[in-house]
Amino acid sequence: MRTIEIDGYGKIHFNTISFTEAEAIEVDNDGNEVKRVITGKSETKFIRVKDEQEVAKNLIQKKFFIDDEEVITGKFTPTKKVEADEFEVIEDRNNEKWNRGLDRTQAIVFTDSQRILNLLNEGKALSFPIRLGTGYKVWNGILNYYTTLDGERKLALLCFRGNTDEGFKMKSDNPIEIKLDVMPKATKQNINKLFKLSKA
User: Which residues, 6 or more positions from 52, have their beta carbon under 8 angstroms from its beta carbon?
Assistant: First the structure.
């Protein structure tokens, strides 16, 4: 626990709240554990632990344990289309869901879709799971307006993972880490499950 003294007022004691990834191990296509080895030329090689054989980099996957199930998956591809059963229309006038996220990012949005603009102008938002890069993260995405301090409304994609409220509910003498289980299979069912786990 850390302490700061505020001159003339007293001391505060605090622990930080942070976000941790779900644990996973690197494996080959068959689920055999591999280890990373850095060569003298600063190149990374992957060696299978059980027989010390090199495994090609494009065959490396990750093994997660989700709900007592062993799941092996390669990296996700970025989201290109959100199917009708993957999104929901929500009320989120003040971006409260995004504001409560522990891990947050945002993007400026441009659209010619009058249907989307009409929905947002009614004070509603679109919420859906989204994969932004070629890694193992699935974010909660909310398409909504963001209002700047000078009152300007900008169309935004607000993405987040985790829930700050969970951290403030905990009491601990050590730094508090919120762990969000990753659902790595890029299927509608599994991504929607992760989406529900990480909703604010």
Answer: none
Beta strands in 92-175 (DSSP E): 103-108, 124-130, 139-147, 153-161
Q: Is the dihedral of CA 163, 168, 169, 174 positive or negative?
A: positive
Mean pLDDT of 44-66: 86
DSSP string, 160-183: EES-HHHHHH---SS-EEEE----
What span, in angstroms and rounded, lies between the C-alpha atoms of 34 and 26?
6
Both structure tokens of 28: 């080959």
Three-state SS annotation for 46-95: EEECCCCCEECHHHCEEEEEECCEEEEECCCCCCCCCCHHHCEEEECCCC
Phi, psi of 100 (to 5 degrees): -85, -5
Q: Residues 152-181: pLDDT tens digits?
A: 999 999 998 877 887 777 766 655 454 444
Count of CB atoms situated within 10 Å of the CB of 56: 10
User: What does the alpha-carbon distance between residue 9 and residue 23 come to, in Å, rounded to a whole number?
Assistant: 42
Residues 83-124 pLDDT 10s: 888 888 988 878 888 888 888 899 999 998 999 999 999 999
Interior angle at CA 116, CA 100 and CA 101, nearest 5: 10
Structure tokens that stand for 100 in this block:
């409560």
